[in-house]
Amino acid sequence: MDAMDEPHGVVLARRTAFSGRILSVHADRVRLPNGREATMEVVRHAGSVVLLPMPDEAHVILVRQYRYAIDRWIWELPAGCLDPGEEPERAAARECQEETGLVPGHLERLAGLFPTPGYCDEFMHFFRLTGLSAPAAGAPEVHQDEDEDLRVRTFAVDEVRRLIRGGGVLDLKTVVGMALI
């Protein structure tokens, strides 16, 4: 049977527990494909882009960012949320300029993945960005989000892979992104 032909769950009732800037949390009463009823807690997220900005084939740009949820500074690939109605390619170019200060000349879609489908509907779009350059003179200025405090650094791809193996990169999207190149 094709996955599109398989039965799906049916929402019987929905309660919004929280609605915020980047996500909402729902408690849905559903009838599952097997006929049983259950309450499912679901995080709804508009989606995101994960960037592999590559000045050349041997280098990738990472950002060091403070992540309040884990109370740590970590190295990670630049990434960001899709704005309402925004196409992933547009979001990737916007986030690249916001987080690295560079404008991509070329975007290549590498993959699209659900990072945590057990409780969240976020879909991550992974892009390799090349042909990086400074914004054109007179281009509108872009700024980091208010919750961002980033340090930008170019690494050799092999160095990032060593950091991953040694536990120096703890961000899952970065590990996955590096495996895609």
Task: Give a verbal description of the structure.
This protein is of the alpha+beta class. The protein has 2 domains: 3-45, no CATH class; 48-179, Nucleoside Triphosphate Pyrophosphohydrolase (Alpha-Beta Complex), CATH 3.90.79.10. 17% of the residues lie in helices and 40% in strands. The protein has 3 helices and 10 strands, in the order βββββββαβββαα. It has helices at 88-100, 157-165, 172-179, and strands spanning 10-19, 23-31, 37-45, 48-53, 59-67, 72-76, 79-81, 106-113, 124-130, 150-156. The strands form 3 sheets. A 4-stranded mixed sheet has the order 7-4-9-8, with helices on both faces. A 3-stranded antiparallel sheet has the order 1-2-3, with no helix packed on it. The chain has a 3-stranded antiparallel sheet with strand order 6-5-10. The model has no long low-confidence stretch (mean pLDDT 93).
How much is the radius of gyration in Å?
A: 19 Å
Under CATH at level 1, the class of the largest domain stands as: Alpha Beta
Q: Strand portion, in percent?
A: 35-45%
Number of helices: 3
**Gross CATH architecture of the largest domain:** Alpha-Beta Complex
Largest β sheet strand count, sense and barrel closure: 4 strands, mixed
Structural class: alpha+beta
> According to CATH, what is the topology of the largest domain?
Nucleoside Triphosphate Pyrophosphohydrolase
Number of separate structural domains: 2
Widest sheet, order of strands: 7-4-9-8
Low-confidence regions: none
Indicate the overall shape: elongated
CATH superfamily of the largest domain: Nucleoside Triphosphate Pyrophosphohydrolase
Task: For the record, give the distance between the C-alpha atoms at the N and C termini, rounded to a whole number.
Answer: 33 Å
Mean pLDDT: 93
Q: Considering DSSP H and I runs of 4 or more, what fraction of the residues is helical?
A: 10-25%
